[in-house]
Amino acid sequence: MKTVLLVKKRNVFALFFLFFSLGLFSQNEMSGELFDLAKIKSGVRNRRISSYDRTGGNADNVSGIKAGEKRTIAEISGKGVINHIWITIAPPPGELSRNDIILRMYWDGNEYPSVESPIGPFFGQGWNEQYNYSSFPLNAGPVNGTGLSCYFAMPFEKGARIEIENQTNRNIDAFYFYVDYLETDKLPEGMGRFHAWYNHKLTNALPEGENEWGTLGPQENNPTGAENYLFIETQGKGHFVGINYYVHSPTPMWYGEGDDMWFINGEQIPSLIGTGTEDFFNTSWCPKEPYTSLFFGYPRVNNDVGWLGRTHLYRFFIHDPIFFENGIKGTIEHGHNNNLTLDLGSVAYWYQDKAVMLPPAPTKEQRKLMPFIGPSEIHKWRDAWRKAKGNSPTLWGNE
Fold it and tell me: In which region does residue 328 sit, left (phi positive, over 0), alpha (psi from -120 to 50) or beta (all else)?
């Protein structure tokens, strides 16, 4: 019974957030019960663009999208709010990289996108991998993370367009999709425009080395965040609502001593500073166990020695958006004082009062996947260490 009640409460809350995000409830309407589901709305019409077979047959997909080709999958005129997107693709990862299929969304007739990201990382599937997970606005469902869903509200006043670009080296055999939206005569006041931006960087270690946890000697400090990893930077008014964060660590050392630092409205010194990567993502004590919830989680964790390998973290700021009037820069340290070489990727999600141009997107070469470090590489490290220590036949490893 408790489980059933919990599921019901989650469903009620999910519906509440959907209506709240669409601006269909005022503060007065929410002051009593969470919402009145039975209230009849006027001037709202459900619309859908999907990949269904126009002949009435069962070939319900867009097929044969060639390498290098761009394809518009949805073009909408007038006013409305996209409230659901679902996608699945064939062939699966391993044969077709979801890190190299680019998703772009354009609002209000703009020639520049306000959403630009590889399709896997946008939906919470890092690298070219697939795995199940469930969060409040984004989900990857069975079979094994192949069903990609998005419930972010995406308002537009003068039309919307969704495009994909095939930057893989082969054809996309089948691309299935739904784009569900509400067509309306008038948008509620104050509806922001949805933005999402993918960044990627192979970070640099410090000249003195990857001195995490003081393993190589005393550590320096990082008071300004000058070399932090950047996951959002934009000018204008709005609020930040979430991040998917992808870490590939080539060392068994813990990657997450880095703090989040926020520069709001043109600040030179950050006004919001965290206490560690895992803390920013609402977890603690260097986790490496899979965990998912509505607002935060670790759906993919490394299964190697220490923290060697890949980890996917997410956090959605549904109750606690980070607001900005003139602009925002969100950053995080890679290691205690930016001392680690890490392969970092991220997708940031936010709303602004108007659709704006994104920073330049990483190229295919810049976002290429780094190889795994395995036992043979670690053994070679040990061999180099032995030789540096005089190559005694009894060297153990902690001398």
Answer: beta
Domain assignment present for 108: yes
Range of the domain at 172: 44-189
**Whole-number pLDDT of residue 42:** 83
| Residue 278 CA to its chain's centroid (Å) | 16
Say how far apart CA 109 and CA 325 lie, in whole Å.
24
- Between β-strands 138-141 and 147-150, what pairing exists: parallel, antiparallel or unpaired? antiparallel
Mean pLDDT for 337-354 is 97
How far is the C-alpha of 161 from the C-alpha of 365, rounded, in Å?
Answer: 27
This model's pTM is above 0.70: yes
User: Which run of H or E residues covers position 172?
Assistant: strand 172-184
| Mean pLDDT computed over every residue of the chain | 91
On whether the CB atoms of residues 257 and 212 are closer than 8 A, the answer is yes
Regarding whether 202 and 342 lie in a shared domain, the answer is: yes
Residue recorded with tokens 């469930």? 134
pLDDT at 368: 94
pLDDT tens-digit map of 250-271: 999 999 999 999 999 999 999 9
Place of tokens 């059933």: 4
Residue 32 and residue 77 in one domain:
no
Average pLDDT over residues 297-322: 95
The alpha-carbon radius of gyration of the chain (Å, integer) is 23
Residue 229, judged by CB atoms within 10 A of its CB (0-12, 13-18, 19+), counts as buried
Each residue's pLDDT tens digit, 15-34: 444 444 444 433 443 333 44
pLDDT tens digits, residue range 310-327?
999 999 999 999 999 999
> Which position has the token pair 């209230």?
39
CA distance 128 to 95: 10
Q: Looking at the structure, do residues 166 and 196 belong to the same domain, yes or no?
A: no
The answer to whether residue 385 is domain-embedded is no
Place of tokens 């890092």: 126
Residues 166 and 246 occupy one common structural domain: no
245 in the same domain as 96:
no
